[in-house]
Amino acid sequence: MDKFKKILDNLEYYIAAFCLGLMTLLCFVQVISRYVFSYSITWAEELSVILFIVSVFIGAIGGTRRNQHMRLEMVVDLFSPKTKAIFKIISNVVFMIVAAILIYAIMINIQNLFTYKMKTPILKLPKWIPYTVLPISLFFIIIRLMEENIKIIKGIKAGEYDKKPEEGKEE
């Protein structure tokens, strides 16, 4: 059971690592194919680009979970731990709103790709399929941000952010 939970907790990292590994293998095979056999695998580049995009967006879920998403901290670092926590909550809410707006806009785009039956140039894969990674990853990013906000709110209620950092120690 612990092993299953560990796999589930780190699923986004496994998917991103798999995509990056497969992309690296495809690029390596393509280079060998071109220079040793003078034969180009036409679909390898297109699939590599799709795998790269999937790995970036799925990896962003993990980055959000580990609190490694981008935000401005220079000014926020001047405040008390409790005020920093409140700023993190506000930052996460803004991030969630932006992600929700992006999901809406991307879903319109996916609907158009589906309606007009657009396909990738070489693989002839329906374009809406690789595009679905965007709203899915943004949805899971929103979930991770909600989890973080709940954790911070519980910490504020428990008084974890009322402590002052010790002199000479970093937070």
Q: How would you classify the helix and strand content by structural class?
A: mainly alpha
The main pleated sheet reads as: none
Q: Estimate the mean pLDDT confidence.
A: 89
Tally the beta strands. 0
Computed over alpha carbons, the radius of gyration is 21 Å
- Figure out the total of helices: 6
The stretches of 5 or more residues where confidence is low (pLDDT under 50) are none
Percent of residues in beta strands: under 5%
Can you give a write-up of this model?
The protein has 171 residues and is mainly alpha-helical. It is 71% helix and 0% strand. The chain is elongated, with a radius of gyration of 21 Å.
What does the secondary structure layout of this molecule look like, with pairings?
Elements: H1 2-9, H2 11-37, H3 44-65, H4 81-115, H5 128-131, H6 133-158
Helix pairs in contact: 2-3, 3-6, 4-6
Which terms summarize this structure?
about 0% strand, 6 helices, mainly alpha, about 170 residues
Question: What is the compact description of this entry?
Answer:
This protein has 171 residues and is mainly alpha-helical. The chain is 71% helix and 0% strand. The model has no long low-confidence stretch (mean pLDDT 89).
